[in-house]
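Quick entry, no commentary yet.
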Amino acid sequence: MAKNWSPNQIALIGAQASRFPSKEATGGVMHWDSLRSTPEKVRAHMHALEAEFSAAENDGLSQDGKRAKLHEIGRKALSEFSKLKGTPDSVTRRQARLVENMAEELSKGKSEYAEEIRAWVAKSEKPILTAMALKDDPRAAYALLSAPHYLSGLSADEQETLRNQFFANTAPGKEAAEIEAALGVCGGAVRSAEAMICERAQIKPDGSDNLT
C-alpha cells in the first residue's frame, strides 16, 4: 500500500508556479489569477484527499473493503481533477488578443522592399542562416514571415523557427511564451496529482482497478 503524502510532497506539486508573476505585479489581471489558482486548487484538494485516504486506510475495514473504499475515493478524485484540465476561458481570450498584437507588431515592418528581401534571402547560399541574421530587422521579419516560406527559400519549419525568434523579442511574444509556460506548469501539477492518486488508490488513470 502506498505511503501517506507528507505536506512537503503536496507542496512540491506545481511548485514552479511560485515563479508566475505576482498578483501585485499583474494588478489582478483575470487570466493570471486563473493560472495561479490552478496549482493552489490542486494542492488544496490533495490535502483533503490525504485526510480522506488516511481515514479509509485506518477504519478497520477488511482488505477487500479497504481496497474498494480507496478505489471509490480515487475515482471520484480523478473525476474532480478532470475539471482542472484545459485552458481557462480568460487565458484563451488573452492568447487570442496576443495573437492580434503579434500580427500588429509584425505589420510595423511592412515596406516596399519585401519582395526584394525575400528574393535576396532565397538566392543566398544558406537561406535560413541569412534569414536568422536579419530576424531583428522589422522590415526583413515582415518580408520573410508575411509570405509563403518557399518564396524566401525556407522550409515551413525554418520559417516557424524564424517566427518564434522574432516574436521572442517583442512584448506580446514574451507574454505569450510566459502564458504557455504557465499552462505547462498547471497541466504538470494536475498530472502529478493524478499519478499520486492512482498509486494511492491502486487504480489506473482511466479509473479501472490496477491489478498488476
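second:
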Amino acid sequence: MKSAVDILLDLEVKFGVNHFHKGLREDIVSDEFKNFLNSLVFQPARHSIGLPAAPVFVEKHKSAVETHLAIETVQVAPDPALFFGETNANLLLLAKQLSAFRKEIPDMYAFTWMLRRHCRKLKDIFRVKPELALDFQALLDTEGNLYWIDVDGHINLSMKLRKDQIICRAQRALATFKDVMLNLTETKIIQIEYRQACH
C-alpha cells in the first residue's frame, strides 16, 4: 500500500496525474473486521463474467497473531465513472459500460479536449516508466478526467517480464486507451481480442 501511495504522489508531482489518495495509516484488525471487509469486496471484472469476488483476507492472513492493515483515506470517486483496465477481462467489462457512459457526457468537445490531455500524459509516463502500464487501471469521469487507481499491480508482474515485454505492454496499453477515447468520441469498435501479443 505504501509503495502504491508513493508511486501516486510521485506521478502527481512529476506529471500532474489525478488520484483519490488523501492519507494513509496503519492499524491492527480483528478477525470479525476481516470477515466484514471480505463481505464488502466487489470486483467488477469477476462479477461481469459470473465469478464471485476473491476475498481480500485469506487463511494465511487469518492465522497470523496480528494483522496490520494499511488504511487509506480517499476522496469519493466520481459518479458516473468509466473503469479502464489494461487486462482483457477488464476491457470486456469496459466494453459493456461504454454506451451508457457516453450518454452521460455533458459536453463532448470539452470531454475530448481533457481526455486528449490525459492521453499525452499517459504517453509521457509510459515512455519514462513503462512498467506502470502493467495492470494499468483508472477511472474516467464525464468531464474527461482520468484518475489512477490500484497502481501497485505492476510490481510483481514487472519482475516476471523482460524489458522488451514491458515496453510492448506499455505500447499496447496506450493503444488500447486511445481506442477507448475514439470509442467514446467517435463510436469506434474496440478490438479486444485482436490486441498485439507481447512475447
